[in-house]
Design a protein that fits this description.
- This protein is of the alpha+beta class and about 120 residues long.
- It has one domain (about 5-95): Hypothetical 12.0 Kda Protein In Nam8-gar1 Intergenic Region, Chain: A, CATH 3.30.1250.10.
- It has four helices and five strands, in the order ββααββααβ.
- It has helices spanning about 25-35, 40, 65-70, 75-85; strands at about 5-10, 20-25, 50, 60, 90-95.
- The chain has a five-stranded antiparallel sheet.
- The protein is globular.
- This is 10611_t:CDS:1.
Length: about 120
């Protein structure tokens, strides 16, 4: 299994909404021809995302069961993921750890410089 994953994007016909999962492209290509490969080897997680407000830009959030039911006719994550993997397009490859994030454990308003005055000093 590759350490890089990619966003697999699926757009239902007649809809502006896009749903996506993170998967390993090499394993996905094998899975598309050999469904005996377990999904756990193909996807990074069993989370299904959508861009809140639609479009390509914006904040990604987990799709609700109701939104999945409306778009795919089921809210079963495994069934929806199989549809996305089968018919979705492979988009940007992402290297692990290459995300903009913040350290939530430092608390609200925590200073990051050692000599800064803040609530944790």
């Amino acid at each position: 299994m590759s350490s890089k994953n990619a966003r697999i994007v699926y757009k239902p016909q007649g809809s502006r909404e896009e749903y996506f999962v993170y998967a390993y492209p090499g394993e996905l290509k094998k899975w598309r021809t050999d469904k005996s490969i377990p999904l756990t080897d193909v996807v990074d997680s069993f989370d299904i995302f959508e861009i809140l407000g639609g479009g390509n830009d914006g904040i990604a959030g987990r799709a609700s069961k109701q939104r999945l039911e409306n778009a795919f006719g089921t809210s079963n994550n495994t069934e929806v993921i199989e549809i996305i993997l089968k018919d979705g397009a492979i988009h940007s490859t992402v290297e692990p750890g290459n995300f903009a994030t913040f350290n939530e454990t430092r608390g609200k308003g925590a200073a990051t410089a050692e000599n800064a005055v803040g609530i944790h000093n």
